[in-house]
Amino acid sequence: MSRLFISNQRTDEMVGDLGVLDPEYCRYVGNQGQRMAWCMRDGDLLVLPMAPHAAFLGYVSETLGITPGSVDVLVPPEGGAPEGILSSDRLLDPSFLAVLRDAVAAHGIDEVVPFHFDSTISRLTEELGLADVTPGFGLLDQGGGRLLNSKATFRALAAGAGVPVPDGFVCDSRKEVERYLWERFLSHGHPAILKQDYHVAGFGNEVISPFEGVDPVGALRSVVTRSRDELAKYLADRWHWLTDGGRNRIVAERYFENSTPLCAEFRLTDDSVVFLGHGEMRMQPVLNGHIWPAPSADSPIFPDFISDGLGLCGSIHALGYRGIVSVDAVLTTTHGILVNEFNCRVSGSTHAYEFGRGIVGEDWQDRRVIIEMRRCSFPPLDRAIQVLHDHGIAFDHGTRSGVVVAVEDAGPNGGYGEYLVVAESLAQAEELERQVGTCLLLS
Amino acid sequence: MSRLFISNQRTDEMVGDLGVLDPEYCRYVGNQGQRMAWCMRDGDLLVLPMAPHAAFLGYVSETLGITPGSVDVLVPPEGGAPEGILSSDRLLDPSFLAVLRDAVAAHGIDEVVPFHFDSTISRLTEELGLADVTPGFGLLDQGGGRLLNSKATFRALAAGAGVPVPDGFVCDSRKEVERYLWERFLSHGHPAILKQDYHVAGFGNEVISPFEGVDPVGALRSVVTRSRDELAKYLADRWHWLTDGGRNRIVAERYFENSTPLCAEFRLTDDSVVFLGHGEMRMQPVLNGHIWPAPSADSPIFPDFISDGLGLCGSIHALGYRGIVSVDAVLTTTHGILVNEFNCRVSGSTHAYEFGRGIVGEDWQDRRVIIEMRRCSFPPLDRAIQVLHDHGIAFDHGTRSGVVVAVEDAGPNGGYGEYLVVAESLAQAEELERQVGTCLLLS
C-alpha cells in the first residue's frame, strides 16, 4: 500500500493557458508542492516540480517519523511551462517515465494521488499500468476532472442537491449578464462577483460594486460600476478575459462583504463519503492562510454547512468521482452560510488535515488547532529550526504541539516559505505565532 | 394537473449558433414540433413554432379523444431566428408573455414540459410563476440543461457509472486528438467518429476512416484519411468546426460499421426512474425513422442495455435532473451493445411512447409495434385521411391499430410530413406501411 504523490499544483485544465501565469507565481505554487510531502508515509513516492533541499526532506521525514530511505522524491526534467509547473511534457517525458516506472515497481505503488487528476495524470496512470487499481479512473479518464473543476458544474450540482448558494447564474451572453447583474444586484446597491468557469484561488474572479471600498476577498480586484453604462463598458472590456477568449461561460453571483470564507473537506471512496475536517480563511489582520478547525464552528448554523457539503459529495460520488473534495462557503452577516464552490482535488488544507490526523488521530480537530502562516521569510532552514528549538516553540513530539516549517523555498537561498503552528487552543496557537514572528525576526 | 408543452425542438444551447442552420431544415424541425401535440390531454396548452392547420389540430384531438375546446395552441410572434425555431426573443416577447400568462391561469397549468429545458425556458418558467412547482428547476435554472446536453459530460458519467461505451476520449488539443485517433484506431484499420460537444441528431458528427465506403450513420459524412498526414490535414481544416470556433472540446470514438442504433427512454421523477420504452432506427432500405419496440430486443444482451440505461439515469437523477432521459446505443457485430449518448430532454420517440401508452396502456410495447415514416408526401390532410379510411388502414379506435398522420407541414399547401403506423406485429406494421405507399401514391 504505497502511494505515488504528484504535486501538480496548477494544470492547464485548472487555470487555462499556463503560459500566461506570472513566473514568480509559478515558483510560489511550485514550492507549495512541498505541502504534499506532509502526506507521506513509509514507502511512498513524491513527484515535485522543483527539487527541495535535502535538509528539508530530512526535516519532514524526521518530523513525520518516516523510516530513513523509505521514501523517494523525483523531479522530472524541465519543460516548456514556467518553472514550478509540472506540465504534461515534463510528466510524460520518456526518460522520466522510465525512471518513474522503475521507482513505482521498486516501491510497490498501488495508488496515484495527484494534486489534480487531469488528463495528463490519466495518461500517466495508464502508462504506469495503474489504471485498473485507481478508484474512479473511468470518470477521470473521460474528462471528469475538468467537468468537476467547472464553477458552472458546481452551480448546477448545488442547485440539484438543494444546497444554499449565493443568488446568481451561469451564462455565456454578455447582454444577459449585464441585464442580470444590473437588475438583480447593482441597481439594488449590492456588489457582485464574476467568476471564470475554470480557475483557482480567486485568480479568475473580479468583484464589481456600485460603490467604493469593497474588499475583494477571493477575487483579483474590485471594480466600481455606478451605472448600467459603466457596467456595460466594464463587461465589454473584460469579456474576453472572463470567458477565456470566448471559450467558456461565466458565473455571476451576489458578493457578500465582510463575510468569512469557510472550507470543509471530504474523502470519497467506493463505499463512503468521509468527513476530514473544516477550516476558515484568516481575515485579520490580512487575508493570509487558514485556521483549522474553523473558529466559527461554534455557530449554530455551522452543522448545516457540513450537511450541505455531504449532500454535494453525494452527487459527486454518484458521478463516479473518488478522492478528495473540498467545499467552500461564506459565513455572511445577513444570509447565513452560503456554499460557493467545490474542488475535486487535493486542497490547500489537505496536508494540514493529514498532519493533524498523523500527530493526534482522527479526532484531531477536537484536540488541536493549526494556524497556517504563508509568505514568511526566515533564516536558512537549519538555522530557522535551531531558533525555533532555542525558543522552545519548535514542534515537539511529546506535546504534539509547536511550529513546523511546512514549505521552504527550493531556490539556492531558501529562507522563505510557510509554517504550520500547532497548539491545543486558538489562543495558544496565536501566542506561538506571535513568538515565531519575534524570535525569527530577531535571529 | 394541466401541462404547458413548449415545442422548442432546437435551441442554441443544443446546437450552438441557430443562425447557421439551413432555413429548410429549420422549417422541417419546426413542423416536427407538432409531435408534442400527441402528448396532450384535456386542459393542456401547447406552444408551437409555426401555426398548424386547424384541420390537423382537430384530427389530433379527435384521435386522442380530447374534449373539444379544452386544449389551446399558441404561437409567438416571429423573431430573429429562422422560421421554425422557438427562439428566446419569441418566447420572451412581452406581448406573447401576457397572452401566455392569461392562458396559463385559465388552464390551471402546473407543469412546464419543453422539448429542451434551456435557460430561456428557465426564465419563462420564472416569469410564469411556475419555478417552485417545477421538479428539478434548481439544476435547470443553473445551466444544468447545457451541462447534461454535453457529449463530454456523457462520456464522463458513463465511465463513472461503469457503462460500456465505444473506446474513445474527450479532448481539446488537436495534436492529442491526432495522436490518439492514429495510434488507437486508424493505424489499426478502424474508422472513428468525431463529435462536437454540443449538437443533435448527428449534425455535429463526422466519420473518418482509413478506407472508402463507410456509411456515416449518425454523422454528416464520412471522410477518408489514409495516412497520418491526411489525418493532420483533415483536423487542421475542420478543427474550427469541430470545436465550435475553439469554444468546446470534442469527443473522439471508435466507429462501428454495420451496427444498429438503439434507444431507450426513461422518466426521472423525484422518487423514481421509470422505464418508458425502447426503439431502433430503421436501417433498411435507408435510415429513416424508428421502430418501437426495438426488434433486436430479442437479443440475449439487450436487457443489459436497459440496465445500463437505468445506471446512467441513476447518476443523472443524483445530479437533480427531473424529466425525460433518452439513452442511445449501438448494437455492434463484434463488441455487443455500446452506449454512445444520452439526452436529457424530450426525444424523437417520446410522442410515440405517449401515443402507445394512450391507446393500449403501460404495457403497450408487448402488444403493439409502431413504425415511423418520415419525410412523406401526401395529399392535403382531409384527402389523405379519407384515402386511409377508404383503404381501411386509417387508425381505428376499435382495433387500436392503423395509420396516423403524426406531422403535417404547416405551410399553405400541407401535404408533407410523418406517419405513425400502429399494428400488433412488425410484419403487420410493415404490410400497413406498404399499403400506405401504394394507396397514397395512387390517390
TrEMBL record, chains A, B:
Keywords: ATP-binding, Nucleotide-binding. InterPro entries: ATP-grasp, PGM1_C, PreAtp-grasp. The keyword Repressor does not apply. The keyword Ribonucleoprotein does not apply. SUPFAM superfamilies: Glutathione synthetase ATP-binding domain-like. Residues 155-373 form the ATP-grasp domain. PROSITE patterns: ATP_GRASP. This is ATP-grasp domain-containing protein. It comes from Streptomyces macrosporus.
